[in-house]
Design goal:
Layout: E1 10-15, E2 19-21, E3 37-44, E4 50-57, E5 75-77, E6 83-86, E7 95-100, E8 105-107, E9 116-121, E10 128-136, E11 139-140, E12 144-151, E13 158-159, E14 162-163, E15 171-175, E16 179-183, E17 197-199, E18 207-214, E19 224-229, E20 235-238, E21 247-248, E22 258-261, E23 264-267, E24 270-275, E25 277-280, E26 285-288, E27 293-298
Parallel strand pairs: 5-12, 14-19, 20-22, 21-24, 22-25, 23-26, 24-27
Antiparallel strand pairs: 1-2, 1-3, 3-4, 6-9, 7-10, 8-9, 10-11, 10-12, 13-15, 15-17, 16-18, 18-19
């Protein structure tokens, strides 16, 4: 972009995007849309006479239209992953540039040059403006923007690990939340329970669960990890009844272990006891349906 003036000995130019120059005929390379607007020059001649002139300049966008309004949620929670945002296809565009004025936003797999993006908000994310422009070899379009409000996540809950016998259920108690969500994964995944006191399924091996607090804005805290330990013991008294969906191998020590069973094995449960010795005591009953079974095997852990 070239600006020209004449008739003086000194020149003072001002314009958009903080432009200033004292050249008589300044030239601006790599002009952008932000440089559109009114440019003013003040000319002083040898007799110290002063005059001014103003020029309206429009920087074209090289034929690329402004992207359509951004589609996606204008609210998010700290710690929220995999939010999708997109604009319609811009004719002639070869790429897109997305930017965010707030903090704590990352683009999924680092991809931010397509018209459809996936965004992750960290637990330190702040509100800001999401902006996209379309690009080609001639330049960039006018921007399309969306303001995003990021709500704070609550603090994480407190909970302690527990130890249970092989084949038994356990109860984990959590505190610190108004609303609780329990998970089997550290990230993502569906909640398996809501409440402060969670009863595990019957377990034959150690397992990790994860708990989060949920606030009134439906934002979740970072998840607290809780370990359920299932050690190898020499004595294991099993009173937990097994039914459809249970597929377990409760154990006791292979060297000196004793399983004492007073429970029931029913429906399509698939249960195998393994220990040095197994006592099917008063109250034990095995009546599996088709597809289920009960086995007692000499073996065990360690």
């Amino acid at each position: 972009m070239n600006l020209t003036a004449s008739g003086g000995t000194t020149y003072a130019w001002t314009g958009p995007n903080s432009f200033v120059s004292t050249d008589q005929n300044p030239s601006i390379t790599s002009a952008t849309v932000a440089m559109s607007g009114n440019y003013m020059v003040t000319v002083t001649d040898a007799n110290l006479c002063v005059s001014t002139a103003e020029l309206a300049v429009t920087v074209n966008t090289c034929g690329l239209p402004q992207p359509s309004p951004i589609v996606g949620s204008n609210v998010a929670c700290q710690g929220r992953d995999s939010l999708v945002y997109y604009v319609d296809l811009v004719p002639g565009a070869t790429s897109y540039t997305w930017t965010y004025s707030g903090n704590g936003l990352t683009f999924h797999q680092g991809i931010s040059n397509t018209r459809i993006i996936t965004i992750n908000f960290s637990f330190a994310a702040t509100s800001g403006t999401l902006t996209v422009v379309a690009n080609n070899s001639q330049g960039s379009s006018l921007p399309s923007s969306m303001n995003i409000t990021v709500f704070a996540a609550p603090s994480s809950p407190s909970a302690s690990g527990i130890t249970i016998p092989s084949g038994s259920k356990g109860i984990i108690n959590a505190s610190g939340c108004t609303t609780y969500r329990w998970y089997q994964q550290p990230l993502l995944g569906a909640s398996i329970f809501a409440g402060a006191s969670f009863t595990t399924s019957a377990l034959d091996a150690s397992k990790t669960y994860y708990i989060a607090c949920k606030n009134e804005a439906s934002c979740e805290s970072p998840r607290t990890q809780v370990q359920v330990n299932v050690p190898c013991s020499s004595s294991n008294s099993i009173s937990t009844n097994y039914s459809a969906g249970d597929n377990l191998i409760p154990k006791a020590s292979a060297s000196n272990g004793l399983i004492t069973a007073t429970n029931k094995v029913e429906n399509t449960a698939k249960i195998t006891y393994q220990s040095k010795a197994i006592l099917l005591d008063v109250g034990f009953k095995a009546e599996p349906a088709a597809g289920g079974y009960f086995k007692a095997e000499i073996g065990g852990c360690n």
